[in-house]
Design a protein that fits this description.
single chain; alpha+beta; five-stranded mixed β-sheet; elongated
Length: 168
């Protein structure tokens, strides 16, 4: 088992030493993520590599891997969603540094010297969650068939329509 990772990290110091942090976080400590999960018993595997690009911008290359349980937006049943996200974050403190960021960097404003490792990983997961998670097409066929049979039933207000039209 890996040792506990620090709660707060100094990305500039880590980039200066070209360090890498690998680890796991339990879902139950990621507060904002827990608000949308059906089960918070899993873990997130993460890898963060720190360095500076040629223009002097602190760069964090992230790799996030986890499986989460969400509501399917088609049938409202639980669906396992695999999250695998790799991205390159470009840290900036001011407008001048922001303008130096490469187009393929995701900007991350550095307000303080230290940042929370948990918040950084949680933010990457939240950005990777699909807007409308669903099962594969075959898994939701039952619910779609049920919806179609409900559409074929006679409208309960059809008798009122007949009264209105004077056909009764």
């Amino acid at each position: 088992m890996l040792p506990e990772q620090p709660q707060l990290i100094n990305p500039l110091r880590l980039a200066k030493n070209k360090e890498r942090i690998d680890g796991f976080l339990n879902h139950d400590i990621l507060v904002r993520l827990n608000a949308i999960l059906l089960d918070n018993g899993g873990q997130v595997k993460y890898s963060l590599c720190f360095d500076f690009d040629p223009s002097g911008i602190c760069r964090i290359t992230t790799s996030i891997d986890t499986e989460i349980l969400l509501n399917c937006q088609r049938c409202l049943e639980p669906v396992n969603t695999q999250i695998r996200k790799c991205s390159t974050l470009g840290l900036y403190r001011n407008l001048e540094e922001f303008n130096k960021l490469e187009n393929d960097y995701e900007p991350l404003q550095l307000h303080e010297e230290l940042i929370s490792l948990e918040l950084l990983v949680e933010e990457e997961i939240l950005l990777a969650i699909p807007l409308a998670p669903t099962h594969g097409n075959k898994s939701c066929i039952k619910s779609q068939a049920a919806m179609k049979t409900n559409l074929n039933k006679e409208n309960p207000f059809s008798a009122l329509k007949k009264l209105k039209d004077g056909k009764v």
